[in-house]
Amino acid sequence: MTAIEKLQLALQEKERTYAGLLKSGRTQYQAAVPVSLGMEFGAWAEAVARDRWRVYKSLERIKVVNIGGTAVGTGITAPRQYIFRVIDNLRKITGLRIARAENLLEATSNNDAYVEVSGIIRAHASNLIKIANDLRYLSADDCGEISLKPLLRGSSIMPGKVNPVMPELMVQAGLKVLGNDSMIAQAVSSGHLELNPFLPLITYTLIESIQILQRVDRKTCQYCINDISANEERLQANFYRSNALVTALIPNLGYTRAEAIWKYMQENHLDIKQANAALGFLDPTELDNILTAENLLTLGETD
């Protein structure tokens, strides 16, 4: 099983585990509308699944080789029989699905396939950075809705401080790959006429990016995703005190009274149930029914 596949499966397992655990969805770091913690893991899993598909398809982009073209792709000094048989023999020896380029001159002078594959790798790095930053926020003191596995002391002078070192590793690895992608693009564009003399740098950098992401995907599963736990009390407290629930009341109360509940919550430091009890807008049982996962997470409004 590949490292990226393991990461996808680990995220999907958390998606199932926390499918019904309600929380505030956030936009611009502000409470928006209700989601579940499982849905957030599911969104990350879907992004990684796309990365996995892209990586698999990228093999097609780099299977074409120019062996047999000799100096610039014309095949000068190479026996014609060699040119047509060398790829077949290499395929048998290596087990790789390589193919001879139809235009050996073009394949010798242009290396844009490496830019394309590097872009696919970059997409995964970008997703890792995004996921890592989400995890850092959700586990931070101000939010505290999830807990990451404590791996090492965060400070020699601040007792009890534990930093999110695995998400930070994910970010740093991702940034390195983004930098490598820029280097590959520049090296590919710096070829001259019938040959790119920078192919060693291109291939070395691409392989480095692949190896970095393989390692960080494995470590992310092993030391981060698999050991994440939900802080259900904190989730519930944040959820019932946020305006994420107020939007859900609009079909029952209308905008004006829903806004009045939110203002009352803010002014009196109450959660939505306490504010509704004070204002008497909804029967408590009716409110409880509105705030169930089944009602809040169903796609769209039902008649």
Can you give a write-up of this model?
This protein has two domains: 3-66 and 101-232, Up-down Bundle (Fumarase C, Chain A, domain 2); 245-297, Ribonucleotide Reductase Protein R1, domain 1. Helix 3 (80-94) links the parallel strand 3 and strand 4. The protein is mainly alpha-helical and 303 residues long. It has twelve helices and six strands. A two-stranded antiparallel sheet has the order 1-2. A two-stranded parallel sheet has the order 3-4. It has a two-stranded antiparallel sheet with strand order 5-6.
Which helices and strands appear, and what pairs or packs with what?
Elements lengths: L2 H15 L4 E6 L2 E7 H22 L5 E2 L14 H15 L4 E2 L3 H6 L2 H28 L6 E2 L17 H25 L9 H25 L5 E2 L1 H9 L9 H19 L3 H8 L4 H7 L2 H5 L6
Parallel strand pairs: 3-4
Antiparallel strand pairs: 1-2, 5-6
Helix pairs in contact: 1-2, 1-7, 2-5, 5-6, 5-7, 6-7, 9-10
CATH topology of the largest domain: Fumarase C, Chain A, domain 2
CATH superfamily of the largest domain: Fumarase/aspartase (Central domain)
Class by SSE composition: mainly alpha
Task: State the name of the first-level CATH class of the largest domain.
Answer: Mainly Alpha
Tell me the quaternary state.
Answer: single chain
Shape-level CATH architecture of the largest domain: Up-down Bundle
Rounded to an integer, what's the Rg over CA atoms? 27 Å
- SS field, number of helical segments: 12
How many domains? Answer: 2
